[in-house]
Amino acid sequence: MPKGHPRYESLLYRERVADGVKAGYTSSIGLVAHGRGEAFDYLLGEKTSDYARAACEAAVAKLLEGNAVLSANGNVAALCAEEYVALSSAVNAPIEINLFYRTPARMRLMEQRFLRAGAKQVLGTLEDAEVPGLESERRKVDSRGIFSRRTVLVPLEDGDRTEYLKKMGKFVIAIDLNPFSRTAKMADITIVDNIVRAVPLMEKLAARNPKWHGFDNAANLRGSMAVMAKNLGAQQPI
Amino acid sequence: MPKGHPRYESLLYRERVADGVKAGYTSSIGLVAHGRGEAFDYLLGEKTSDYARAACEAAVAKLLEGNAVLSANGNVAALCAEEYVALSSAVNAPIEINLFYRTPARMRLMEQRFLRAGAKQVLGTLEDAEVPGLESERRKVDSRGIFSRRTVLVPLEDGDRTEYLKKMGKFVIAIDLNPFSRTAKMADITIVDNIVRAVPLMEKLAARNPKWHGFDNAANLRGSMAVMAKNLGAQQPI
After folding, report:
1. In a structure prediction context, what are the per-residue pLDDT tens digits for chain B, which is 238 residues long?
2. What DSSP string runs through chain B?
3. Is the minimum CB–CB distance between A190 and chain B shorter than 8 Å?
4. How close B38 gets to chain A, by Cα (Å)?
5. I need a labelling partner for A28 at 20 to 30 A (CA). Which of A19, A66, A184, B212 fits?
6. How far is CA B105 from the centre of its chain?
């Protein structure tokens, strides 16, 4: 891929997801999710908005309160495994693999991917608890992780999962480029940003040790939508 | 997939593309393109706007003037092969397979797919001409089709291809859910709609034998963007 291509960075990340599919830890449907994210990222101008930055700061403050876990799927592993491990260290919360298209082989490959990226411990393979009511494979969780921890970071949307995590009384932080998604609406904090930008930013913000002052997710979502609407209105090819 | 799922239809079409990948005629990168389309289709409210309908009508009028060809890729084959063949008959323009990830096996599978869908003739496998300047595999075209015909229908974006088809002096009609794309900007007519809706609508419109009265593509694109911006502003989960 030529470096001068107008969509170079975007195409590079797309290739990473395709590589994850080839390696076997990312589902091919992860490519669809990635494409959907690409479109919303166009609308954001492919940069972190002030709203996303505020959401990242609130998210880090909540994660630093402890009793948190970082959920990971195949797209996270493909796009930013190293950065996710760094965030896990910075906020002292373990990574738990939680897959919609769960197979033993994918679980093993995911675990290897995060261990190779430097993770000390990767939860999710134990499968000794369930999210009550959730029908998909994502119901299978770790009693030391998603099942018992109060705060769960869920990058990339899955409306059903978010719904049932909320029913368990959890504090859900989502990273989701789609401000229309059920996840975006139901989460306590929704970071409307690309994970390849949001995750490193969160790690950086953790060093400043921000404190929790509450967060108005509905207002923040409206802000992100306004950014997208403004970019649409600007009628510039991105 | 349960019929009551809020995203049933959308998930069904996604599965069709995934099936195309399994069958071997759709590239896995076609899943990314499909996901991107899903996002823009959310913003359209998943229905054909008045702007898209006007663009379809102008497109059909131009196609009915003759000397036209309908380009096809793996996503078209996966999503609406039968409907594309019906359009091809209705406007009396042949289908030509033109692939970015071109391999002999995919070309053969694509040809079989369209023949099975009822096509009398499928161009593209001959590979006896090139689009001057275009570097990708899409440069390989048929002397009886894309190379020599005046009007080319290109569903689903590829900015480079559109650029070089325009340099050949062709009249380019695009079907592209992304009104920001280079294709959308460079084409003479851009139908901002989902191909699963636009292609059957075009076939229906052909029966009314519309006449060409000119078309302001920039104004039409602004209209589609305004529809998306309005939906974004409505702040409803779709």
Report:
1. 566 666 788 888 999 999 999 999 999 889 999 999 999 998 999 999 999 999 999 999 999 999 999 999 999 999 999 999 999 999 999 999 999 989 999 999 999 999 999 999 999 999 899 999 999 999 999 999 999 999 999 998 788 899 999 999 999 999 999 998 899 999 999 999 999 999 999 999 999 999 999 999 999 999 999 899 888 776 544 3
2. --TTSTTHHHHHHHHHHHHHHHHTSS-THHHHHHHHHHHHHHHTTTS--HHHHHHHHHHHHHHHTS-EEEEE-HHHHHHHHHHHHHHHHHHT--EEE--SS--HHHHHHHHHHHHHTT-S-EESSS--EE-TT--SGGGEE-TTTTTT-SEEEEES--HHHHHHHHHTT-EEEEE-S-TTSHHHHHSSEEE-S-HHHHHHHHHHHHTT-PPP----HHHHHHHHHHHHHHHHHHT---
3. no
4. 6
5. A184
6. 22
A101, with CB counted inside 10 A (0-12, 13-18, 19+), is middle
A236 touches chain B (CB under 8 A): yes
Residues in B touching A234 (Cβ below 8 Å): none
Name every chain A residue with its beta carbon within 8 A of the beta carbon of B182.
6, 237
Which residues from chain B sit within 8 angstroms of residue A29, using beta carbons? 14, 18, 31
ipTM over 0.85: no
> Is B178 an 8 Å CB contact of chain A?
yes
| Reported pTM | 0.87
> Cβ contacts of residue B173 below 8 Å, gap of 6+?
B59, B62, B63, B151, B152, B153, B154, B187, B188, B189, B190, B191
Non-local (6+) Cβ contacts of A89 within 8 A are none
The reply to whether residue B35 touches residue A35, judged by beta carbons under 8 angstroms, is yes
Q: Could you tell me if B79 lies within 8 Å of chain A, comparing CB atoms?
A: no
Residue A172 phi/psi, 5-degree rounding, is -105, 125
